[in-house]
Amino acid sequence: MAELPNTETLLLELVEGVLYVTLNRPDSRNAMSLAMVEELRAVLRAVRGDQSVRALVLRGADGHFCAGGDIKDMAGARAKGGDAYRELNRAFGSLLEEAQCAPQVLVAVLEGAVLGGGFGLACVSDIAIAHQSAKFGLPETSLGILPAQIAPFVVKRIGLTQTRRLALTAARFDGAEALRLGLVHFSEADDQAVVDRLATCLQQIRQCAPGANAATKALLLATETEHLGNLLDHAAGQFAEAVLGSEGAEGTLAFVQKRKPAWAQ
User: Fold this and answer.
1) 210-264, CATH topology level
2) Tens digit of each residue's pLDDT (9 = 90 or more) over 205-251
């Protein structure tokens, strides 16, 4: 079991192979400070090689997911000049890259404010569950800045044409519209429905072998960057390894014996 880092801006709870990560700066609607960015990156590093952690559930404290970047951090960077702003901004982009590629299944539970950086985090999740009343938006241009690190991930999630509309109008929208756009997978009407949906998704994740899930996630992400022939060649090798590996052997045996495999117990 990986040792989790000590955190001041995050609440961490590991339950039955699921690490619940709660953004915990409720006074600022969980705005993304540089400290929070670094703590999230540390958590991702800590669990990266730990297959006993099957899923990461990311949500916010006190009814809000994340209201975007921390204005105080931005004000502090102003005194240090352009390099400080560049480093502050790029650190968040690195977080998004690392979250996107985490071998665990990343589940985002989206309530209240899902703005700016929070919107970006939603876009790198494998499963996104929204409360119907959540408020999504890219407010950067209304503040005279741009969604620099978020934009590529939003485009990949919902497409260029919708991203252009949302980024260039700073329009706000709810969970039902997020579902229509393909930003989230589920939009639930009330708190209990969100809880129930999360429980269902986690139960489904537990049916899947952790190594196979990690390799499959990496394969799916590679479809965006690798040449098709090379990708298929590499995937064939991975398939052979999986069939002959411990998970493949256990899954096949469990099927023949009409029982659940060890990872689904």
Assistant:
1) Lyase 2-enoyl-coa Hydratase; Chain  A, domain 2 (1.10.12)
2) 999 999 999 999 999 999 999 999 999 999 999 999 999 999 999 99
